[in-house]
Design brief:
By secondary structure, the chain is of the alpha/beta class. Helix content is about 35%, strand content about 20%. Strands 1, 2, 3, 4, 5, 6, 7 and 8 form an 8-stranded mixed beta sheet that branches. The protein starts with 5 loop residues before the first helix and ends with a strand.
């Protein structure tokens, strides 16, 4: 599924700001996950499994230069065969997020690890998305943002135990590098004072 505006956004100050935070924290989470098979679903432009040491690490998307081209609703992997799945901004930009989660539950081994990143609707970024959703079909404003409590409910129904999320990117979604840098002092204060309002989150769940 091609997402309009994604490639351009990833190269923008906003994209670099968000991806730097996500890469840092995903790297920390995956480095100590062991097993035999690890998958990254979607966003093949970013290598989120680079710091993981599982022998077979594969990128999966429905198009592009990836290891496995597949519909994320019907993954071509055996049940209980994958130790780690990373999904960065997949669910909020796909028409069938429930089915993707069901497939991930099917292929993960018991005690398998699932990492999900998403834009937080309860943030300045979420407010901007609500204001622009009708007027922009470009990433990241075209998505249907999922709150952490809602996502936790979905995961619980599938038998996952979700841990406390990490939130970051408290600076407003400015379009210029200059203004993003001027607002980044909010990152330190936000983590301490209004943790729930980070622009993006990383949620870890165990099957």
């Amino acid at each position: 599924m091609s997402i309009p505006g994604l490639e351009t956004w990833l190269q923008s100050p906003q994209g670099r700001y968000v991806m730097a935070w996500e890469r840092q924290h995903i790297d920390s989470e995956v480095v100590d996950v062991f097993g035999y098979n690890a998958l990254q679903l979607g966003l093949p432009q970013c290598k989120f499994l680079a710091q993981n040491r599982i022998p077979l690490r594969q990128m999966v998307a429905d198009q592009g230069r990836v290891d496995v081209v597949a519909d994320l609703r019907q993954l071509p992997f055996a049940a209980h065969s994958v130790d780690l799945v990373v999904m960065a901004h997949v669910l909020e930009f796909h028409a069938h997020p429930h089915q993707i989660l069901r497939e991930v539950e099917r292929i993960l081994i018991p005690e398998g690890v699932l990492l999900i990143t998403g834009f937080n609707p309860l943030s300045i970024w979420g407010l901007r998305q609500q204001l622009l959703a009708r007027h922009s079909q470009d990433f990241p404003w075209s998505g249907h943002y999922l709150s952490v409590p809602r996502l936790k409910d979905w995961l619980q129904l599938l038998g996952f135990e979700a841990e406390r999320p990490l939130l970051g990117c408290y600076a407003p979604p400015c379009f210029s590098e200059h203004w993003l840098r001027r607002w980044q002092w909010l990152d330190g204060i936000g983590t301490r004072c209004w943790n729930f309002a980070g622009g993006v989150y990383l949620l870890r769940a165990i099957k």
